[in-house]
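Students often ask why we bother encoding 3D structure as a string. The short answer is that it lets us treat folding as translation between two languages. Here is a chain of 471 residues written in the first language.
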Amino acid sequence: MTALIHDDFLLHNETARKLYHGYAEGMGIFDYHCHIPPRDIAEDRRFENLTQIWLAGDHYKWRAMRANGVDERLITGNASDWEKFLAWAETLPRTVRNPLYQWSYLELDRYFGVRDTLLNKATAKAVYERCSEMLRTEAFAVRNLIRRMNVKVLCTTDDPADDLQYHRKLREEGFEVKVLPAFRPDRAMAVESAEAFNTWVLRLEKAADAEIWNYRTYLEVLKKRHDFFHEAGCRISDHGLETAYVEDYTDGEVGGIFEKIRSGKGLDEGEIRKFKSALMSELAAMDAEKGWAHQLHFGALRNVNTRMAAKLGPDTGYDSMGDLPIAAPLAKFLNRLDAADRLPKVILFNVNPRDNEVLATMAGNFQDGSMVAKMQFGPAWWFLDQKEGMTAQLNALSNVGLLSRFVGMVTDSRSFLSYPRHEYFRRLLCNLLGTDVERGEIFEETDTLGRMVQDICFHNAVRYFGIDPGT
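And here it is in the second language, the structure alphabet:
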């Protein structure tokens, strides 16, 4: 049997092949948004078997297994690792045309050299034993997996109350890949539950070694943590939102709302929106002051299945696309910051494809000439990071913005085996450009286009974030 993932996978014309093999293939990876645990990198973890590294925490695969009728015991339950892997192996043939199908074979090939075997019930045992044996060796320790994929910069997702001890350990040990924190203050805005919010505020006080008396001191402590992250090399914040919050408010109103929730009383919907509106503006201003990039992830409707979310917790595969209005509130939010000279670099992500052109055109409204592509329409994210989703994002950006200035792909993953998604994106990018060349719709020389591809793959991100990869 020939290789399932061959050299020209997804490259359907000669120009695409030249662009990919001649320019994109050898580029380093700048992964500016992922959910990889920094502890695993700091401790150079080795996984005991393929289930632990490939299935644990992967809600993409979990959703597919549930759709295939797999019992929860074999997904997140107490079944053995081998039983869970077998359930996945039996599911994979049923994922044809789901991105998991191609991703899985790409990952098996790039990490383990499994390139001529279809994974199914009959082959599961051999694949599991072969890959698990490899994982237990030094060559497959986490840091070597990162090196193998040519990762140069990796930005994790970190709570403001985190002590960043694992980032500090990596820096002190001189790990050559830059593993940097990203400031994710979602819990700072999560005032729907007074109990959960106040529990988190106690953590924040402990982390900052400071007491929070009112809204003013709350902002001061958040600013202190923001400074702490900056000293640790952070240059990016990260915000998960259903939409932008832009209620009008006064300082007095927000102060009263803060006192109310700190006393343990619940907030009504109007108070929640006012608080989030005020805090969003303050957090963006902190980023602008330090030259950080402000990432806004819009549109996810989270924990829809309340029964299973209560049983398993968040991030377990019970989220979907939302359809709240984004254009008008986002325009008001960005305009409010711009008018006050508090607008940072911004990357806009959407999870609903209907919002592609909305965000791509919105970014263009606030380019100000102070730098190249200050406002970015971010890469295809979550449910959209697949062939059609990536292609649609590239087309939307190309039609109303400058593709050549795009900062490229992210993994947005909790798995150390997800880095071939950058390869997947690069192949699609080169195929898109190559197709236009061969249709006579792009007139640039191959070398000019090749350098543009390299910029999108890596160099644009280096310049945009101001982070020296060091290698």
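Translate back mentally: The mean pLDDT is 96. Keep this in mind for the problem set.
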